[in-house]
Task: inverse folding
């Protein structure tokens, strides 16, 4: 049984390290950088880039996320992560410092941090009693792990080494250019305390402290090393025990636990992100996974990357809906520029990706399938290196996209074939769209060609809304309506006094 | 280490907030010259002793405690000054130290504290000597306890111990510390151990502990190593430098307290000597509880005037036991205000524990001492003078409580006599009913007459005349030929303030002006 909070079963392919092609188009690259900022040491973007395959995997991860939202589990995981960070810093010192004694001391301290972290996490999780399969498996694993011979030996050896080292107490007399090191005598009085006591009879009240703050550095200088060498000569047994400990326990961090430390940061980062969205009063929900042939809906959903930026620049955010019956496969989106069409299309794409990552999304309610492929085609600049024209470029890219498309895929096309006449564009778009419709997959198509919206019963039309009295004002709301591009143009013309009749009147003076 | 010369059980507050309206009292009673005399012109001494004079004590027992101490100082006149100068010397020691700045290094902190402590040790020796010499000759509880405390806390072996610390803190054989291992193997939990007191060479040194030891010697010209050793030393020195510097602060704060308390006595001794030199009477007053309303004085004089005029100064007797109102009416410039001031000054001096300018003085303590004098000018002229007086009186009322003594000089004279009398009567009645003792110098005849009538009336009514507080009426003495003696004696208020006297003196005669048709004839004087 695979022990992980992210994966129900061992993932068959490890993440390739390069994000999918559609990431940039859907602004998921920006989102990734933002969500995982501050957690670069864990390299979490690879988890963000690889979708899960089926509903069971998604539910497994969603359940882990739910558990992590419980305050007692959240707290103990945070504390555990903090300890592990400290542990790594201690082990780094153990690796990097020049002096052997220092390396060994930090190694021991690192081991102690590890022991404490495991204890704390195991005790707290057992007491909390997780509900998710992921955390339950982890808790059982930890309980077993603590009983293992290797772990109990680590604990016993560390305690023994520490106990002996705690007894090391030495005396250093600095005199001119020499320092003499000997064992400390237990009963020697504290001279600073003696001096203070001598003048205690004059004290009336507390006075300011004159203690100077002295700097200290992690790396010993050669004088400190020389002293430590001599201390070692005076306490051979204690230091030998330390050396034995380090020799015996050259590795001690369990692989599964290390993996948990990394994987859980993925979920923690997402929780922090959703907290930020909550401050903007945006909704949040756990999506339901449906089959690709089932009805799908998004209720009051927000473009996630846009929402992330909105917390900094206070832009206006508008939630939108999508409602598709089983038979509705293609969504054609038309409307005025800057109307929110591309944002809407992006939202749909983002949501399909995030659902397949087992995460929450900013919406009131969502039911979507897990696609086997997400393909996007967004407007790009001229490809200057390739001497073929842009149209050629577009066609080649679409062809490539369609090669892997199945009925379970999702395609998002944003303003295709803009680099040609509309007659050509219509002709090409109709043929491409019909090809897509033959696959029967779900497709979102943003275009200015409203003919495309009327191809068949499997196609629905969404229009970016304008304010009736003020055509300049976009509500950023997408409504389900027949495409009526002309009407917008008419309204604009009317507003600026440029309709035919208006012109007639104006020029007839 | 305790001082407890001003109070038997506690230290005075060095930054005490003076009672409200102290500025008025200082101005009205002429305290500035008095304080200057007590301080002998020394501005710092004046600053130190003024707060004690201006914060009167509330109980006879506290006053007697100080009077006993003062008696000792009066018998050994140089002692108060010697203690004051010694404390000043000690408090001033940082200024004389050769090490100027507190550096960022523990060794600088240590060096400077050591220097100052060496100076302070001399002062501590001196203090012990004073205790040895003068302790046996003291009879007051305060000074006996003080000197005994010095001898207990600063015996010879203690002073030797301090000297020993000063030697050891030169670290003649280096700095010794103990430590344990920190998480990265460096030393932690450093504790400084006792340094030796005698300079020795490396070879001669004696060390405690295990004969097993290992020594590291720096290679020649290893500057980084030398710095590292100094840093290590600094850790140990840091601990004791802090302790030493704080101890220096403690010792200085003790001397600061001693300076403050002896400043007062030094001032009292000086005042007494000045009065004695001029042949003026002074006495140890008898403080009585506030309820008794005691006030009997003989040969009382205004102390500033006394210092100025010597034994020529006019003295008065005051017999006002049981009186809650002492009213002085009569001639201008007849000595009324002076007498009131003399009373105020004597009361203040008694209640701080000093001697009083009289041959005897026996009076109840007052819970507060306040003044309300006519002001010559109201600089802001925001309100009329009468308004100003009323406002000031109202503010004063807020501060009064039963047992207080308030001295009014020509209050409510800024309006006509009738109105002034009416308001003043309200005020005086109210104050007396609230248990406040009133001294009032006034021209307001109707007021005085009314109060006298009330007094007589009450006297008739009561069977035991001593039971309720009564009023005492005084006026400037007049001899037959209208010469004024500037003495104040018991006497009924007179309807005239001898304005005619003054008129004649100025204008030469008092013949009435011949009557004219439209001018009504003046009545004869």
Result:
């Amino acid at each position: 049984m695979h022990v992980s909070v992210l994966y129900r079963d061992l993932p068959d392919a490890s993440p390739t390290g390069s994000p999918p092609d559609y990431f940039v188009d859907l602004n998921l690259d920006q989102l990734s950088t933002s969500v995982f900022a501050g957690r670069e040491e864990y390299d979490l973007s690879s988890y963000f880039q690889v979708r899960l395959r089926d509903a069971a995997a998604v539910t497994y991860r969603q359940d882990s996320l739910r558990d992590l939202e419980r305050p007692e589990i959240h707290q103990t995981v945070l504390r555990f992560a903090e300890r592990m960070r400290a542990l790594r810093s201690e082990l780094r010192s153990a690796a990097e410092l020049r002096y052997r004694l220092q390396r060994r001391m930090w190694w021991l301290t690192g081991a102690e941090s590890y022991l404490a972290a495991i204890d704390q996490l195991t005790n707290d999780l057992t007491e909390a009693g997780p509900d998710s399969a992921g955390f339950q498996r982890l808790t059982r694993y930890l309980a077993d792990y603590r009983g293992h011979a290797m772990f109990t030996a680590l604990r016993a050896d560390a305690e023994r080494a520490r106990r002996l080292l705690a007894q090391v107490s030495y005396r250093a007399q600095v005199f001119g250019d020499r320092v003499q090191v000997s064992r400390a005598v237990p009963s020697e009085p504290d001279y600073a305390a003696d001096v203070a006591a001598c003048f205690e009879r004059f004290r009336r009240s507390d006075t300011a402290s004159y203690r100077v703050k002295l700097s200290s550095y992690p790396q010993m200088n050669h004088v400190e090393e020389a002293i430590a060498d001599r201390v070692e000569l005076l306490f051979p047994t204690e230091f030998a025990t330390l050396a034995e400990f380090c020799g015996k326990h050259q590795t001690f961090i369990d692989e599964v636990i290390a993996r948990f430390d990394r994987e859980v940061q993925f979920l923690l980062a997402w929780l922090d992100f959703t907290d930020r969205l909550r401050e903007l009063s945006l909704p949040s929900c756990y999506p339901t996974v449906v089959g690709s042939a089932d009805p799908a809906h998004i209720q009051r959903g927000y473009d996630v990357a846009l929402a992330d930026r909105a917390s900094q620049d206070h832009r206006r955010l508008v939630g939108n809906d999508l409602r598709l019956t089983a038979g509705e496969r293609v969504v054609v989106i038309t409307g005025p520029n800057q109307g929110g069409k591309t944002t809407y299309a992006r939202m749909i794409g983002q949501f399909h990706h995030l659902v397949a990552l087992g995460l929450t999304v900013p919406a009131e309610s969502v039911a979507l399938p897990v696609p086997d492929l997400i393909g996007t085609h967004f407007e790009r600049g001229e490809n200057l290196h390739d001497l073929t024209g842009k149209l050629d470029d577009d066609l080649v890219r679409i062809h490539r996209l369609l090669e892997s498309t199945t009925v379970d895929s999702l395609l998002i096309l944003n303003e295709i074939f803009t680099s040609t006449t509309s007659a050509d564009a219509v002709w090409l778009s109709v043929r491409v769209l019909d090809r897509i419709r033959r696959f029967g997959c779900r497709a979102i198509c943003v275009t200015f060609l409203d003919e495309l919206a009327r191809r068949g019963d499997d196609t629905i039309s969404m229009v970016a809304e304008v304010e009736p009295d003020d055509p300049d004002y976009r509500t950023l709301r997408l409504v389900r309506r027949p495409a009526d591009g002309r009407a917008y143009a008419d309204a604009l013309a009317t507003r600026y006094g440029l309709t035919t009749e208006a012109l007639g009147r104006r020029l007839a003076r | 280490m305790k001082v407890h010369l001003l109070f038997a059980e506690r230290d005075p507050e060095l930054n005490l907030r003076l009672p409200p309206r102290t500025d008025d009292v200082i101005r009205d009673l002429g305290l500035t010259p008095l304080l200057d005399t007590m301080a002998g012109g020394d501005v710092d001494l004046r600053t130190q002793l003024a707060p004690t004079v201006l914060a009167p004590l509330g109980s006879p027992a506290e006053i007697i405690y100080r009077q006993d101490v003062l008696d000792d100082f009066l018998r050994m006149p140089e002692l108060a000054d010697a203690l004051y100068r010694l404390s000043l010397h000690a408090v001033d020691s940082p200024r004389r130290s050769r090490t100027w700045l507190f550096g960022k290094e523990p060794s600088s902190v240590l060096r400077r504290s050591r220097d100052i402590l060496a100076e302070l040790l001399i002062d501590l020796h001196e203090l012990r000597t004073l205790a040895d010499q003068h302790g046996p000759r003291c009879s007051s509880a305060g000074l006996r306890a003080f000197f005994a405390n010095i001898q207990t806390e600063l015996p010879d072996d203690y002073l030797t111990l301090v000297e020993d610390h000063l030697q050891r803190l030169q670290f003649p054989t280096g700095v010794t510390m103990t430590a344990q291992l920190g998480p990265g193997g460096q030393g932690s939990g450093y504790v400084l151990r006792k340094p030796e007191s005698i300079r020795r060479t490396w070879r001669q040194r004696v060390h405690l502990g295990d004969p097993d030891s290992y020594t590291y010697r720096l290679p020649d010209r290893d500057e980084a190593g030398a710095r590292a050793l100094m840093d290590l030393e600094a850790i140990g020195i840091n601990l004791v430098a802090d302790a030493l510097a704080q101890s220096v602060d403690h010792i200085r704060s003790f001397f600061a307290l001693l300076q403050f308390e002896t400043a007062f006595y030094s001032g009292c001794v000086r005042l007494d000597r000045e009065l004695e030199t001029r042949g003026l009477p002074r006495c140890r007053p008898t403080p009585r509880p506030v309820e008794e309303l005691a006030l009997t004085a003989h040969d009382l004089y205004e102390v500033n005037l006394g210092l100025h005029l010597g034994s020529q100064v006019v003295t008065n007797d005051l017999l006002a036991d049981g009186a809650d109102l002492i009213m002085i009416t009569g001639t201008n410039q007849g000595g009324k205000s002076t007498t009131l001031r003399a009373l105020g000054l004597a009361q203040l001096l008694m209640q701080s524990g000093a001697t009083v300018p009289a041959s005897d003085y026996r009076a109840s303590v007052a819970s507060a001492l306040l003044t309300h004098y006519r002001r010559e000018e109201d600089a802001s002229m925001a309100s009329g003078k009468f308004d100003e007086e009323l406002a000031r009186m109202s503010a004063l009322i807020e501060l009064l409580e039963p047992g207080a003594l308030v001295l009014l000089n020509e209050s409510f004279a800024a309006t006509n006599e009738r109105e002034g009398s009416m308001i003043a009567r309200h005020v005086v009645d109210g104050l007396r009913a609230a248990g406040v003792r009133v001294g009032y110098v006034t021209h307001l005849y109707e007021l005085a007459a009314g109060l006298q009538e009330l007094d007589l009336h009450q006297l008739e009514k009561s069977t035991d005349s001593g039971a309720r507080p009564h009023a005492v009426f005084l006026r400037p003495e007049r001899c037959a030929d209208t010469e004024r003696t500037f003495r104040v004696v018991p006497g009924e208020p007179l309807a005239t303030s001898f304005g005619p006297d003054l008129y004649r003196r100025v204008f030469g005669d008092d013949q009435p002006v011949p009557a004219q048709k439209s001018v009504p004839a003046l009545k004869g004087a």
About this structure: Chain A touches chain B through 68 residues (CB under 8 Å). The radius of gyration of chain A is 33 Å. Chain A has a mean pLDDT of 89.
